[in-house]
Amino acid sequence: MTTALTADVAIVGGGIIGLATAERLTAHGASVVLIDDTGATGGATSASGGLVRAFEPTGAHAAWAAEGCARYQRRGWHGTWPELREHGSLTLLDRDSLVRAGAALETAHAAGHETVVLDPGEIARTFPGLAVPEHLLGVLEPRAGWLPVTAVARAVLRDAGSTLRLLTARATALLTRPLSRIRGVRTTSGPVYADAVLLAAGAGSEPLAASVGVRLPMRTRAVGYCLFRCEDAASLANLPTVVDGTTGAWLRRWDTDGVVLAGVSSTRTGVPATVRRTVPAAEEQRVRSVVRHRCPQLSGARAVGGVAAYDALTPDGPAAVTSWPHPRGLVTAVGWNGGGFKLAPAVGRHAADELLKAVAR
Ligand SMILES: Cc1cc2nc3c(=O)[nH]c(=O)nc-3n(C[C@H](O)[C@H](O)[C@H](O)COP(=O)(O)OP(=O)(O)OC[C@H]3O[C@@H](n4cnc5c(N)ncnc54)[C@H](O)[C@@H]3O)c2cc1C
């Protein structure tokens, strides 16, 4: 049997973006139904490495990265989220890229984040497990690091309280009323009527937007990581999170001593929207062959697991929160392309503001 639900806002997608938005909406007194076919956090969020930093050298969403990092440092809006593992975040760049990233660095400073530029000698002295060639520089953020993503998502859900209702169902189309105004979402468990709708369903947002004539091209991109167990755990004891803008490598300490999580960005798109807890041998080889140049211990380290997953990207441009004029009341928050976790508190705040405006109109 199907039943109709009613709320101020319906959200499709219970990943970190949908959850962070739902929490902000309920904090402002709005009722929310969150629709997700996996229950919640079954998509890219369930696989996320959880790296958080304020400095976003590409400049895309630099202000949201700084805001997101500050919110994670404060353990959310009520001090209830897990504590940020402040192992430090080191972003490696060549000298020209660092010059071009001046505005992004300024954005991080303006938001109160400490950053220190280190040369390769200083990096080697501070982090003996790392090897950085002469032509690179590192931007160290001592108070950045990583978070256990699923525990954060659970905490956000708890903060949202009982005015958030979870509906485990597949959204199949959006509903509109006359005069191009959103009416809600059709789902496999019945309709959800709402004055505003957020699509935060990654690539699953595209057909839903198309059902009301909104063009929102999306693609999946492969994102994954391997876990490596190192013989000499002591030399990795102070390893920071590392993001290497020159090779696409990224790594951090795992929860267990001597284990390192490491990935390398991939250009493979159109991959299935699935999360697998195993890594094919060829992918392990690809990751190892790159990350060993920054963390030499990983060349001989035993692979002990990992994740092969995906994130959604918008081929027409960067990720965005968009409030659509037609139908009125539709907001989309998509295209995070491997970097949405660190932005989520800021994206959720901004998307909630847009939805509250839509409800009030
Ligand atoms: C391996 C990996 C490592 C990463 N590491 C980092 C990192 O270190 N730092 C960082 O900042 N970011 C990282 N990211 C990126 C970050 O995790 C994602 O950008 C973020 O989780 C995206 O969240 P989301 O809410 O937009 O999407 P998702 O988490 O994918 O959530 C979308 C949800 O929508 C649901 N859905 C889709 N279609 C429908 C439908 N029709 N009906 C109902 N439900 C639907 C899906 O089931 C899913 O649960 C990583 C991603 C991966 C995969």
UniProtKB/TrEMBL annotation:
It comes from the Bacteria. Residues 8-353 form the FAD dependent oxidoreductase domain. Keywords: Oxidoreductase. One of its GO terms (cellular component) is cytoplasm. Pfam families: DAO (PF01266). One of its GO terms (molecular function) is oxidoreductase activity. InterPro entries: FAD-dep_OxRdtase, FAD/NAD-bd_sf. PANTHER family: FAD-DEPENDENT OXIDOREDUCTASE DOMAIN-CONTAINING PROTEIN 1, SARCOSINE DEHYDROGENASE-RELATED. This is FAD-dependent oxidoreductase. It comes from Kitasatospora griseola. The lineage of its organism: Bacteria, Bacillati, Actinomycetota, Actinomycetes, Kitasatosporales.
